[in-house]
Amino acid sequence: MDDLERRILTELQDDFPLSERPYDIIADRLAIDVDTLWQRVEALLGSGVIRRLGASLDSRKLGYSSTLAAICVPEPKVDEASELLNDYVEVTHSYLREGRFNIWFTIIAANTDEIDRILSEIAAKLDLGLEDVLNAPVERLFKLDARFKAGG
Amino acid sequence: MKMLICPTKMPIIWFQALASFGRFNYNVSLLEMSWTLIVCVILKNEKGNMTDIERRILAVIQRGLPVTESPYRDMAREVGIDSSELLEVLGSWKESGKMRRIGAIVNHFRVGMGSGAMVAWRIGPERIEEVGKRMAAFGCVSHAYQRPTAANWPYDLYTMVHASDGEELQRNLKEMSASAGTDDYKALLTRRELKKVPPTYVK
Fold this sequence. Notes:
Chain A is α+β, with helices and mostly antiparallel strands. Helices cover about 40% and strands about 25% of the residues of chain A. Chain A has five helices and six strands; from the N terminus they run αααββαββαββ. A four-stranded antiparallel β-sheet of chain A has the order 3-4-2-5, with helices on one face. In chain A, strand 3 (about 90-95) and strand 4 (about 105-110) form a beta hairpin. The relative contact order of chain A is 0.15. By secondary structure, chain B is of the alpha+beta class. The longest helix of chain B is centred in the first third of the chain and has 21 residues, at about 25-45. In chain B, about 45% of the residues lie in helices and about 20% in strands. Classes of the chains: A alpha+beta, B alpha+beta.
Protein backbone atom coordinates (compact mmCIF):
# COMPACT_ATOMS: atom_id res chain seq x y z
CA MET A 1 0.00 0.00 0.00
CA ASP A 2 1.44 3.38 -0.94
CA ASP A 3 1.18 6.61 1.00
CA LEU A 4 -1.79 7.91 -1.01
CA GLU A 5 -3.72 4.68 -0.43
CA ARG A 6 -3.08 4.96 3.31
CA ARG A 7 -4.35 8.53 3.34
CA ILE A 8 -7.42 7.54 1.31
CA LEU A 9 -8.16 4.65 3.70
CA THR A 10 -7.92 6.97 6.68
CA GLU A 11 -10.33 9.46 5.10
CA LEU A 12 -12.79 6.75 4.06
CA GLN A 13 -12.79 5.20 7.52
CA ASP A 14 -12.61 8.17 9.84
CA ASP A 15 -14.76 10.91 8.53
CA PHE A 16 -16.69 9.94 5.43
CA PRO A 17 -18.69 13.11 4.76
CA LEU A 18 -22.46 13.24 5.15
CA SER A 19 -22.92 15.27 1.99
CA GLU A 20 -24.41 14.99 -1.49
CA ARG A 21 -21.04 14.32 -3.12
CA PRO A 22 -18.78 12.93 -0.39
CA TYR A 23 -15.95 11.91 -2.74
CA ASP A 24 -15.55 15.49 -4.01
CA ILE A 25 -14.96 16.57 -0.41
CA ILE A 26 -12.47 13.77 0.26
CA ALA A 27 -10.59 14.55 -2.98
CA ASP A 28 -10.39 18.18 -1.86
CA ARG A 29 -9.04 17.20 1.55
CA LEU A 30 -6.37 15.03 -0.06
CA ALA A 31 -5.63 17.64 -2.75
CA ILE A 32 -6.13 15.13 -5.55
CA ASP A 33 -8.68 15.07 -8.36
CA VAL A 34 -11.80 13.01 -7.90
CA ASP A 35 -10.99 10.69 -10.83
CA THR A 36 -7.72 9.63 -9.18
CA LEU A 37 -9.60 9.07 -5.92
CA TRP A 38 -12.20 6.93 -7.71
CA GLN A 39 -9.56 4.76 -9.37
CA ARG A 40 -7.92 4.10 -6.01
CA VAL A 41 -11.21 3.44 -4.20
CA GLU A 42 -12.25 0.95 -6.86
CA ALA A 43 -8.84 -0.74 -6.64
CA LEU A 44 -9.08 -0.98 -2.83
CA LEU A 45 -12.56 -2.49 -3.14
CA GLY A 46 -11.48 -4.81 -5.98
CA SER A 47 -8.51 -6.17 -4.05
CA GLY A 48 -10.67 -6.69 -0.95
CA VAL A 49 -8.71 -4.26 1.28
CA ILE A 50 -12.01 -2.47 1.75
CA ARG A 51 -14.55 -5.14 2.68
CA ARG A 52 -17.45 -2.81 1.98
CA LEU A 53 -18.75 0.70 2.44
CA GLY A 54 -21.39 0.91 5.09
CA ALA A 55 -22.65 2.24 8.36
CA SER A 56 -21.49 0.88 11.70
CA LEU A 57 -24.64 1.07 13.83
CA ASP A 58 -25.18 0.73 17.57
CA SER A 59 -27.76 -2.03 17.69
CA ARG A 60 -28.62 -1.33 21.34
CA LYS A 61 -29.31 2.35 20.69
CA LEU A 62 -31.47 1.39 17.72
CA GLY A 63 -33.57 -0.67 20.14
CA TYR A 64 -32.15 -4.13 19.39
CA SER A 65 -30.44 -6.62 21.70
CA SER A 66 -27.18 -8.34 20.95
CA THR A 67 -24.87 -10.88 22.49
CA LEU A 68 -21.68 -12.82 22.03
CA ALA A 69 -22.37 -16.51 22.36
CA ALA A 70 -20.13 -19.55 22.40
CA ILE A 71 -20.86 -23.26 22.11
CA CYS A 72 -18.83 -26.41 22.67
CA VAL A 73 -19.26 -28.49 19.56
CA PRO A 74 -17.57 -31.88 19.09
CA GLU A 75 -15.20 -31.76 16.13
CA PRO A 76 -17.27 -34.01 13.82
CA LYS A 77 -20.26 -31.70 14.28
CA VAL A 78 -18.46 -28.44 13.44
CA ASP A 79 -19.64 -28.31 9.82
CA GLU A 80 -23.21 -29.06 10.83
CA ALA A 81 -23.06 -26.28 13.43
CA SER A 82 -21.59 -23.88 10.90
CA GLU A 83 -24.40 -24.59 8.43
CA LEU A 84 -26.98 -24.21 11.17
CA LEU A 85 -25.61 -20.78 12.14
CA ASN A 86 -25.72 -19.75 8.48
CA ASP A 87 -29.50 -20.25 8.53
CA TYR A 88 -30.00 -17.54 11.14
CA VAL A 89 -29.99 -13.95 9.83
CA GLU A 90 -29.63 -12.90 13.47
CA VAL A 91 -26.17 -14.52 13.57
CA THR A 92 -23.81 -12.00 11.98
CA HIS A 93 -20.30 -13.32 12.65
CA SER A 94 -19.12 -16.73 13.65
CA TYR A 95 -15.64 -18.10 14.16
CA LEU A 96 -14.17 -21.49 14.82
CA ARG A 97 -11.69 -20.91 17.65
CA GLU A 98 -9.28 -22.88 19.78
CA GLY A 99 -10.45 -23.97 23.21
CA ARG A 100 -13.33 -25.84 24.82
CA PHE A 101 -15.86 -23.27 23.61
CA ASN A 102 -14.86 -23.67 19.98
CA ILE A 103 -17.56 -21.79 18.06
CA TRP A 104 -18.13 -18.13 18.92
CA PHE A 105 -20.80 -16.03 17.29
CA THR A 106 -22.68 -12.76 17.62
CA ILE A 107 -26.46 -12.48 17.62
CA ILE A 108 -28.46 -9.32 16.95
CA ALA A 109 -32.20 -9.72 17.55
CA ALA A 110 -35.29 -7.74 18.49
CA ASN A 111 -34.94 -8.44 22.22
CA THR A 112 -33.29 -10.72 24.77
CA ASP A 113 -36.19 -13.21 24.71
CA GLU A 114 -35.56 -13.70 21.02
CA ILE A 115 -31.83 -14.25 21.72
CA ASP A 116 -32.67 -16.83 24.41
CA ARG A 117 -35.04 -18.57 22.00
CA ILE A 118 -32.41 -18.73 19.23
CA LEU A 119 -29.76 -20.07 21.63
CA SER A 120 -32.07 -22.77 23.00
CA GLU A 121 -33.02 -23.75 19.47
CA ILE A 122 -29.37 -24.01 18.40
CA ALA A 123 -28.53 -26.00 21.55
CA ALA A 124 -31.43 -28.39 20.94
CA LYS A 125 -30.60 -28.92 17.27
CA LEU A 126 -26.95 -29.68 18.07
CA ASP A 127 -27.86 -31.73 21.12
CA LEU A 128 -25.84 -29.51 23.49
CA GLY A 129 -26.19 -29.36 27.25
CA LEU A 130 -26.68 -26.17 29.28
CA GLU A 131 -23.00 -26.06 30.21
CA ASP A 132 -22.06 -26.18 26.52
CA VAL A 133 -23.64 -22.78 25.79
CA LEU A 134 -22.28 -19.41 26.89
CA ASN A 135 -24.43 -16.29 26.51
CA ALA A 136 -22.25 -13.27 27.21
CA PRO A 137 -23.88 -9.93 26.31
CA VAL A 138 -21.88 -6.73 26.83
CA GLU A 139 -22.07 -5.48 30.41
CA ARG A 140 -19.75 -2.57 29.89
CA LEU A 141 -17.98 -1.15 26.86
CA PHE A 142 -14.42 0.01 27.35
CA LYS A 143 -13.48 0.43 23.70
CA LEU A 144 -14.86 -0.05 20.21
CA ASP A 145 -12.70 1.18 17.38
CA ALA A 146 -12.33 -1.27 14.51
CA ARG A 147 -10.68 1.22 12.19
CA PHE A 148 -7.41 0.12 10.67
CA LYS A 149 -4.68 2.58 11.63
CA ALA A 150 -3.33 3.25 8.16
CA GLY A 151 -0.70 5.55 9.65
CA GLY A 152 1.11 2.45 10.92
CA MET B 1 -42.69 2.74 42.64
CA LYS B 2 -40.48 2.60 39.57
CA MET B 3 -43.34 4.20 37.66
CA LEU B 4 -42.89 7.40 39.62
CA ILE B 5 -40.09 8.39 37.26
CA CYS B 6 -42.57 8.46 34.38
CA PRO B 7 -43.78 12.05 33.91
CA THR B 8 -47.13 10.93 32.53
CA LYS B 9 -48.03 9.49 35.90
CA MET B 10 -48.49 13.01 37.25
CA PRO B 11 -52.32 12.72 36.98
CA ILE B 12 -52.15 9.73 39.34
CA ILE B 13 -50.71 11.88 42.06
CA TRP B 14 -53.51 14.40 41.58
CA PHE B 15 -56.05 11.61 41.55
CA GLN B 16 -54.60 10.05 44.65
CA ALA B 17 -54.47 13.41 46.37
CA LEU B 18 -58.06 14.13 45.43
CA ALA B 19 -59.15 10.61 46.36
CA SER B 20 -57.54 10.99 49.72
CA PHE B 21 -59.75 14.01 50.28
CA GLY B 22 -62.70 11.72 49.60
CA ARG B 23 -63.80 13.48 46.42
CA PHE B 24 -63.17 10.40 44.24
CA ASN B 25 -63.77 6.86 45.28
CA TYR B 26 -60.81 4.49 45.36
CA ASN B 27 -61.97 2.39 42.39
CA VAL B 28 -61.91 5.34 40.02
CA SER B 29 -58.42 6.27 41.09
CA LEU B 30 -57.30 2.62 40.72
CA LEU B 31 -58.77 2.44 37.22
CA GLU B 32 -57.05 5.66 36.29
CA MET B 33 -53.82 4.36 37.71
CA SER B 34 -53.85 1.18 35.63
CA TRP B 35 -54.64 3.19 32.53
CA THR B 36 -51.70 5.49 33.22
CA LEU B 37 -49.44 2.51 33.87
CA ILE B 38 -50.34 1.18 30.43
CA VAL B 39 -49.41 4.54 28.89
CA CYS B 40 -46.10 4.46 30.75
CA VAL B 41 -45.32 0.97 29.47
CA ILE B 42 -46.16 1.94 25.87
CA LEU B 43 -43.96 5.04 26.09
CA LYS B 44 -41.11 2.97 27.50
CA ASN B 45 -41.42 0.41 24.71
CA GLU B 46 -41.29 3.12 22.09
CA LYS B 47 -38.16 4.67 23.54
CA GLY B 48 -35.68 2.64 21.51
CA ASN B 49 -37.93 2.30 18.52
CA MET B 50 -37.76 4.09 15.22
CA THR B 51 -40.03 6.11 13.02
CA ASP B 52 -41.32 4.54 9.83
CA ILE B 53 -38.80 6.58 7.79
CA GLU B 54 -35.93 5.46 10.03
CA ARG B 55 -36.98 1.84 9.63
CA ARG B 56 -37.08 2.23 5.84
CA ILE B 57 -33.64 3.87 5.87
CA LEU B 58 -32.29 1.05 8.04
CA ALA B 59 -33.62 -1.55 5.59
CA VAL B 60 -31.58 0.10 2.81
CA ILE B 61 -28.42 1.16 4.67
CA GLN B 62 -27.96 -2.27 6.29
CA ARG B 63 -27.00 -3.56 2.83
CA GLY B 64 -24.15 -1.04 2.60
CA LEU B 65 -23.45 2.18 0.74
CA PRO B 66 -23.69 2.01 -3.05
CA VAL B 67 -20.32 2.54 -4.71
CA THR B 68 -21.35 5.59 -6.66
CA GLU B 69 -20.37 9.26 -6.68
CA SER B 70 -23.58 10.20 -4.87
CA PRO B 71 -24.27 7.30 -2.50
CA TYR B 72 -26.73 9.19 -0.32
CA ARG B 73 -28.82 10.39 -3.25
CA ASP B 74 -28.96 6.84 -4.61
CA MET B 75 -29.95 5.40 -1.22
CA ALA B 76 -32.56 8.12 -0.72
CA ARG B 77 -34.11 7.24 -4.07
CA GLU B 78 -34.37 3.63 -2.95
CA VAL B 79 -35.96 4.66 0.37
CA GLY B 80 -38.32 6.99 -1.50
CA ILE B 81 -37.26 10.22 0.21
CA ASP B 82 -35.13 13.28 -0.62
CA SER B 83 -31.41 13.00 -0.02
CA SER B 84 -31.63 16.02 2.29
CA GLU B 85 -34.05 14.08 4.49
CA LEU B 86 -31.76 11.04 4.47
CA LEU B 87 -28.73 13.16 5.40
CA GLU B 88 -30.74 14.76 8.18
CA VAL B 89 -31.68 11.37 9.69
CA LEU B 90 -28.11 10.03 9.35
CA GLY B 91 -26.80 13.22 10.97
CA SER B 92 -29.19 12.71 13.88
CA TRP B 93 -28.11 9.06 14.20
CA LYS B 94 -24.48 10.18 14.33
CA GLU B 95 -25.36 12.78 16.94
CA SER B 96 -27.28 10.34 19.14
CA GLY B 97 -24.75 7.54 18.71
CA LYS B 98 -27.19 5.23 16.89
CA MET B 99 -24.62 5.35 14.09
CA ARG B 100 -21.00 5.08 15.23
CA ARG B 101 -19.52 5.88 11.87
CA ILE B 102 -20.06 5.54 8.17
CA GLY B 103 -17.52 4.73 5.50
CA ALA B 104 -15.04 2.00 4.61
CA ILE B 105 -14.90 -1.25 6.55
CA VAL B 106 -11.39 -2.59 6.13
CA ASN B 107 -10.45 -6.24 5.89
CA HIS B 108 -7.69 -6.61 8.49
CA PHE B 109 -6.32 -9.69 6.77
CA ARG B 110 -5.73 -7.71 3.57
CA VAL B 111 -3.75 -4.97 5.26
CA GLY B 112 -1.31 -7.32 6.92
CA MET B 113 -3.00 -7.36 10.33
CA GLY B 114 -4.44 -10.85 10.04
CA SER B 115 -2.97 -12.38 13.20
CA GLY B 116 -5.53 -11.02 15.59
CA ALA B 117 -7.13 -12.93 18.41
CA MET B 118 -10.01 -12.58 20.77
CA VAL B 119 -8.53 -12.75 24.24
CA ALA B 120 -10.62 -13.38 27.34
CA TRP B 121 -9.18 -12.29 30.70
CA ARG B 122 -10.10 -13.29 34.24
CA ILE B 123 -10.05 -10.00 36.14
CA GLY B 124 -12.85 -9.98 38.72
CA PRO B 125 -15.35 -7.26 39.67
CA GLU B 126 -12.98 -5.28 41.95
CA ARG B 127 -10.40 -4.49 39.31
CA ILE B 128 -12.35 -4.73 36.07
CA GLU B 129 -12.99 -1.02 35.61
CA GLU B 130 -9.35 -0.08 36.10
CA VAL B 131 -7.99 -2.94 33.99
CA GLY B 132 -10.65 -2.48 31.28
CA LYS B 133 -9.62 1.14 30.82
CA ARG B 134 -5.95 0.19 30.76
CA MET B 135 -6.55 -2.48 28.09
CA ALA B 136 -8.59 -0.01 26.04
CA ALA B 137 -5.57 2.30 25.91
CA PHE B 138 -3.53 -0.25 23.92
CA GLY B 139 -3.28 0.68 20.24
CA CYS B 140 -3.43 -3.00 19.24
CA VAL B 141 -6.83 -3.40 20.97
CA SER B 142 -9.88 -2.58 18.83
CA HIS B 143 -12.63 -3.87 21.17
CA ALA B 144 -12.70 -4.21 24.96
CA TYR B 145 -15.84 -5.33 26.78
CA GLN B 146 -16.90 -6.61 30.16
CA ARG B 147 -19.13 -9.67 29.79
CA PRO B 148 -20.71 -12.01 32.34
CA THR B 149 -18.92 -15.13 33.55
CA ALA B 150 -20.49 -18.59 33.70
CA ALA B 151 -20.09 -21.58 35.99
CA ASN B 152 -17.36 -23.11 33.87
CA TRP B 153 -16.08 -19.86 32.37
CA PRO B 154 -14.55 -17.33 34.80
CA TYR B 155 -13.37 -14.85 32.12
CA ASP B 156 -15.01 -11.43 32.31
CA LEU B 157 -12.94 -9.06 30.13
CA TYR B 158 -12.79 -9.56 26.37
CA THR B 159 -10.33 -7.84 24.06
CA MET B 160 -9.78 -8.03 20.30
CA VAL B 161 -6.03 -7.85 19.88
CA HIS B 162 -4.51 -7.16 16.47
CA ALA B 163 -1.07 -8.06 15.18
CA SER B 164 0.71 -8.60 11.88
CA ASP B 165 2.06 -12.03 12.88
CA GLY B 166 2.07 -14.56 15.69
CA GLU B 167 5.26 -13.15 17.19
CA GLU B 168 3.82 -9.64 17.42
CA LEU B 169 0.62 -11.06 18.94
CA GLN B 170 2.63 -12.81 21.65
CA ARG B 171 4.53 -9.58 22.35
CA ASN B 172 1.24 -7.65 22.61
CA LEU B 173 -0.24 -10.26 24.95
CA LYS B 174 2.83 -10.18 27.17
CA GLU B 175 2.59 -6.41 27.52
CA MET B 176 -1.15 -6.55 28.17
CA SER B 177 -0.74 -9.34 30.69
CA ALA B 178 1.87 -7.31 32.60
CA SER B 179 -0.40 -4.26 32.54
CA ALA B 180 -3.41 -6.27 33.72
CA GLY B 181 -1.36 -7.91 36.45
CA THR B 182 -2.53 -11.41 35.55
CA ASP B 183 -1.58 -14.22 33.24
CA ASP B 184 -4.94 -15.92 33.63
CA TYR B 185 -6.25 -15.41 30.13
CA LYS B 186 -7.34 -17.40 27.11
CA ALA B 187 -6.20 -16.41 23.64
CA LEU B 188 -9.07 -17.69 21.51
CA LEU B 189 -7.15 -17.95 18.26
CA THR B 190 -9.22 -18.06 15.10
CA ARG B 191 -9.08 -21.37 13.30
CA ARG B 192 -11.59 -20.42 10.64
CA GLU B 193 -14.03 -17.62 9.85
CA LEU B 194 -17.36 -19.42 9.47
CA LYS B 195 -19.61 -16.47 8.77
CA LYS B 196 -19.31 -12.72 8.48
CA VAL B 197 -22.29 -10.77 7.20
CA PRO B 198 -23.56 -7.28 7.94
CA PRO B 199 -26.41 -7.28 10.49
CA THR B 200 -29.95 -7.58 9.12
CA TYR B 201 -32.01 -5.17 11.21
CA VAL B 202 -35.09 -5.12 9.00
CA LYS B 203 -35.99 -8.46 7.44
